[in-house]
Amino acid sequence: MLGFDFEEERILHEITKLCAKRVLLQMPEGLKPQAPKLAKIIEKSGAIAIISADPCYGGCDIAYSEAEGLGVDLIVHFGHSKMLKDAAVPSIYVEARATVSIDEAVEKALTLLKNYTSVGLVTSVQHLQTLDQAREILTRAGKTVVIGDTGQMAYPGQVTGCNYSNAKSIEHKVEAYLFVGGGMFHALGIALSTSKPTIIADPYDNRAYQINFEARKIFNQRFACIQEAKNAKKFGVFVGLKPGQKHLDNALQIKALAEKTGKTAFLLTVREITPETLLEFPSIDAYINTACPRVSLEASGKFQKPVLTVNEFKVVCGESSWENILKKGLFEN
Amino acid sequence: MLGFDFEEERILHEITKLCAKRVLLQMPEGLKPQAPKLAKIIEKSGAIAIISADPCYGGCDIAYSEAEGLGVDLIVHFGHSKMLKDAAVPSIYVEARATVSIDEAVEKALTLLKNYTSVGLVTSVQHLQTLDQAREILTRAGKTVVIGDTGQMAYPGQVTGCNYSNAKSIEHKVEAYLFVGGGMFHALGIALSTSKPTIIADPYDNRAYQINFEARKIFNQRFACIQEAKNAKKFGVFVGLKPGQKHLDNALQIKALAEKTGKTAFLLTVREITPETLLEFPSIDAYINTACPRVSLEASGKFQKPVLTVNEFKVVCGESSWENILKKGLFEN
Q1: Could you report the predicted ipTM of this complex, rounded to two decimals?
Q2: Which residues contact B298 (CB under 8 A, 6 or more apart)?
Q3: Theoretical Cys-Cys bridge with B124: which of A283, B181, B219, B235, CB 3.0 to 4.6 Å?
Q4: Is residue A192 a contact partner of residue A217, using CB atoms and an 8 Å limit?
Q5: In a 3-state reduction of DSSP, which class is residue B252?
Q6: What is the β-pairing status of strands A4-5 and A97-98?
Q7: Contact residues, A window 2-41, toward B, CB-based 8 Å cutoff
Q8: pLDDT tens digit string along B263-293?
Q9: Contact A95/A160 with Cβ under 8 angstroms?
C-alpha cells in the first residue's frame, strides 16, 4: 500500500502461526482509511477481520477490552511501537514505517539550523529508518548530531505524543532539535519539553519550519489555566480507561492531595476527555487529568474549564512551581 | 435530591451488605450533574466513589468493562431499569423515579385526545408510578385505557429508547397513545413503531402536544437513506461494544447477506457511532448498525452517509420491503 509499510506478509504469517480466527485491526485516525483494504487482505487467511473504529491515539490505547469482549485471538495494532509490557490478548505492532524520502526536507532544514552546531535528532516511529540518512546530511553540513536513548522508548531517537525523554536527556548537549516527520504534534511536544529551538523537517510537504512560537502560546495558556484553577474549589480527577492511561492509584493520591489543601475532589472515569464531558458536571470548577497529559495541553482552548496535568495541579497546591515545570518540561515528573 | 428519587439509603445499605470498597456510579447525561453529590453520599460509607463520565444511553450500556478494569465491587446504575440478565459485576439499578406531578399535563392532553375513545397509556421508567393516576384521569374523562405488557420490559406500560413492544402489542386495541414523560425521545419511538396518533403529556413543562409530524419527517429520511444505500457497493457493519449492543453473530450474518447480494462488507467495532467515525472511512458508501438502532434513526441529518438499521438493510437487499417496515415499525424484527 502506498506511503507506508503495512507488513501484510508478517501479519498473515502471525495469523497462521497463532491459528487466529478473529483478528482485530486497530490504528490511529490517519491510517483508518486504509483499514478496509487491510481487512480484505486478512480475510484471505480465512480469519474474520474486525476493524476498531473508535479513536486511537497511541500504543497506550491498545484495544484489549474490545478484543476480550469479542473473542478476538489476535490484535494487529498499526502505527505505534509497543508500549505496554504485558499483553492481555496476543498482539502484534505494525509500526507503519513511511516510505517517503526525507532528504529534501532535511536539506531545507539546514538553513534554519545555520546558527547551531550541535543538533539533537528526533523522530516518530514512522521515520526511524531514516535517522542514519538524516544524521549523514547534518554531519556533512558540519553539525554535531546527538541522538538520545534513555531506554524508555522502543528505539533511540524516538518520541511519542507523551514521552520526550530521548529529547530531554540530551538537552544539555544540543543547541537545537531537528524533528523528522509530518505535522506539528510531536515537534510541539519536544518544544514543550525542552524549550530549545525545535525545527521540523516535514517529508510529506517537503518543507522545514520552526515550532517555538506555537509552544510559547501553549505555555501561556497552561500558565493561565493554572492561575484559574487556583480559585477552583471542586476538582474532577480524570481516571483513564485505556490500558496505558489507567492510573487509579495516582488519581487517589491526587484526590487526597486536593483534600489536604482544603479542596473537594471527585474521581471521574473516562475513555475520551471531550468538551462535552465537562459540560455534564456544571458544579465542578476544574479538572486534573491522570489519563493522557497531551489532551490537556492540546485542547486548552476547547475546554470551558481548566484541565490540568498532574504536574500542573501540584503547582496549584504549592507542591511544585511554574519555574519547575518550565525547567522539567510539561511531560516529566 | 430535588426532582428524582435517588434512593440514597438503599444504595448505602447495598454497599454495607456487599462490603463494597469501590463503587462505580453510572447515569445518563440528564442525571450526571447530580453525580458529585451522590459520590459524596457514597463516600460517607467509607467506599471509594468513581463516577463514569462517558456517555450512557440505556440499561444496555452498563459499565461492566470499566468496573472490571478498575476493580470495582458494585455498579450503581441510575435512570434505567435492569435490562441484561447476567451481571458481570454486582450491580443495582436506581430507576430515579420523578417526583413531579403529572396531573396538569395529562388533563391538558384530554383536549388532544377528544376524538379518540380507546387510548394506549405508555411511559418511561421515571414515571411508572404515575400510571394509575394517569389512567384514572383518562377513565374519568370517558376513555378506555389500555396498558401493554409483553413481558419484555421490566414493567407493564414501560418503553425504552429501543423497545416499544408494550405499545406495539396493543396497537389493534387503541386509536391513539398517550405518553407520560418529558421530551420527544420516547414518544417519537412510539410513533415510529405504531403509526398511530401519539400525544405527549410532559409533566416538566406542564403541556401536551402531538408528535406525529416529527415521526413522518423521520420516516421520510429513513426512506431516502434506504434509497441512497441501494447504490452503495461497500458497507460498514457496526458491531457495538456496550454489553447490550454487542451482536457479533448478527453482524456476521448481515455481512454474509451483503456479500450474497454482490456487495462488499467490513466489520467495524465501535463504542459510539458519531459523524466523525464515518469520516475515517471515505471508501465506505453506507453503514449497517447492529448496535443501537436509535442512533440510526435520530441522527440521519448528522451523518454524511446512510447508517441503516438491520431491518432497513434487509429492504436494500430485497429480503424485506418498506411497506413491511411501516407495518412492523422501525424497531421490530
Answers
A1: 0.94
A2: none
A3: B181
A4: no
A5: helix
A6: antiparallel
A7: 24, 29, 32-33, 35-37, 39-40
A8: 999 999 999 999 999 999 999 999 999 999 9
A9: no
Do B53 and A238 contact (CB within 8 A), yes or no? Answer: yes
Give B48-95 as a DSSP string: EEEEE-S---STT---HHHHHHTT-SEEEEESS----SS-SS-EEEE-
Task: Compute the CA torsion angle B221, B222, B226, B228 (nearest 10 deg).
Answer: 20
Digit-coded pLDDT (tens) for B152-186: 999 999 999 999 999 999 999 999 999 999 999 99
CB contact under 8 A, A53 and B266: no
> What is the distance in angstroms between the Cα of B54 and the nearest Cα belonging to chain A?
5
**Whole-angstrom distance, CA of residue B64 vs CA of residue B155:** 24
Please give the model's pTM, rounded to 2 decimal places.
0.95
Which chain A residues have a beta carbon less than 8 Å from that of B89?
none
Contact A53 B269 (CB under 8 A): yes
Helix (H) or strand (E) holding A121: strand A118-123
| Cα A129 from Cα A123, distance rounded (Å) | 10
* Bridge partners (DSSP) listed for residue A77: A26, A93
Nearest Cα neighbor of B196 from B215, B209, B182, B222 is: B215
- What length does chain B have? 333
The region that residue B261 occupies, defined by phi over 0 for left and psi between -120 and 50 for alpha, beta otherwise, is alpha
Are B239 and B291 within 8 A, CB to CB? yes
Is residue B284 within 8 A of residue B267, CB to CB? The reply is no
Please report, to the nearest 10 degrees, the dihedral formed by the alpha carbons of residues B130, B131, B136, B137 taken in order: 70
Residue B101 grid coordinates: 406531578
Q: Which element (helix H / strand E) includes A105? A: helix A103-112
